[in-house]
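quick one before i forget lol
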Amino acid sequence: MVKIDIISGFLGAGKTTLIQKLLKEALAGSKVVLIENEFGEIGIDSGFLQESGVEIREMNSGCICCSLVGDFKTSLQEVLAAYTPDRIIIEPSGVGKLSEVVQAVEGVGEDIQITGKVTVVDVNKCKMYLKNFGEFFQNQVEQADTILLSRTGTASAEKVQKAVELLRQHNDHAVIVT
């Protein structure tokens, strides 16, 4: 059974930092494949990943949850067959719907298990993202089983609390890590 973690969040939220930390600390020694969906975002430093023994499959043609759902399933099946990883980390474009990424992954087969749906949220931009990106941001929050608040070191305790309250309005079951 291959474990799959999906790490979503908007541009600059801290997805790359989280993934680097996971690879270095929590997943060291595991055979990990990272699937990135680059859509106007700066990708994870490929050199860092290759030195860590991580395979990289970048998909630069658009959002995997929208225009590449069919191709994504095929690509994921190819990755499973070619690399036989212990774990796959999927980093979709920040403007994608987490629910559609999950749906695409679930359609791949029975030998995979989604073990994490994480949304990284910049505590300083939470309210603005909800207002400006509505359904996309809301979907990422609603579908997450873990919400990681980033940039909490630069925010007041009151701002962090207000962000948590706002996120709870859209997801009352997720673990929120501050």
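fyi The helical segments are 15-26, 46-51, 69-83, 98-106, 126-143, 157-170.
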